[in-house]
Specification:
The chain is 61% helix and 2% strand. It has 169 residues and is mainly α. 12% of the residues are buried.
Length: 169
C-alpha cells in the first residue's frame, strides 16, 4: 500500500469509496424495503458497533474516506489535527471511557438519524480538540509514549521529528 504511486492511490481510494457507497446504500435500501433497523450500537440491526459487524466496518471506512477526502485540502496544515494525530491511540482508548457512564443515555433508541449524527459529529470533534490539547500540554502522558518507553526508545518530543530508522523497507 505504501509503495503505490499517486495515481494508483487515487484509483485505489476511488474504488474503495465507490464500493463503500454502493454497499452502504444497498444495506440502507434493504433496511427500508424489509422494514428492518439499519444501524444500532448493539442489538438486532444490519449495522452494529458492539460487536462490530462487516457492514458496519464498511460503512465506517466509507465515512472515514469521505471525511478524509473532504478534510484533505482544508486541514492539510492543521495544527489541531497534527497534534491529535500524534496521540491517536490515546484518544481512541480514552474516548470509550465516557461510554461506561453514558451507555444508558438512549435505551429506547428514540433518537432520530439527525440527532444521532449530530451527537456523533460533536463527540468526534470534541475528542479532536481534547487530543490536540492533551498533546500540546502533556505529550509525555500518552499511550504512545508509554509504548515507546516499554520498547526502549526515547519518547518523541513535540515539534521534533522522529529520527530516521534504518530498519524500514
Amino acid at each position: 500500500m505504501c509503495r503505490l504511486k499517486d495515481e494508483e492511490h487515487k484509483t485505489f481510494f476511488t474504488g474503495m469509496l465507490t464500493f463503500g457507497l454502493i454497499f452502504t446504500s444497498l444495506t440502507f435500501a434493504w433496511a427500508l424495503r424489509f422494514d428492518q433497523i439499519w444501524a444500532l450500537p448493539s442489538g438486532n440491526a444490519l449495522l452494529t458497533f458492539f460487536p462490530a459487524n462487516a457492514p458496519f466496518l464498511i460503512a465506517a471506512m466509507t465515512g472515514t474516506l469521505i471525511l478524509w477526502a473532504a478534510a484533505r485540502q482544508s486541514l492539510g496544515k492543521s495544527v489541531l489535527l497534527a497534534r491529535a494525530g500524534r496521540c491517536s491511540l490515546s484518544i481512541y482508548v480514552a474516548h470509550f471511557l465516557p461510554f461506561a457512564v453514558l451507555h444508558n443515555i438512549d435505551q429506547t433508541y428514540g433518537w432520530s438519524l439527525t440527532l444521532s449524527t449530530l451527537v456523533v459529529v460533536c463527540y468526534t470533534m470534541l475528542w479532536l480538540i481534547i487530543g490536540a490539547y492533551w498533546y500540546s500540554k502533556a505529550p509525555k502522558t500518552t499511550l504512545e509514549t508509554l509504548m515507546r518507553t516499554i520498547e526502549g526508545k526515547q519518547p518523541r518530543l513535540p515539534n521534533r521529528p522522529e529520527p530516521e530508522r534504518l530498519d524500514r523497507d
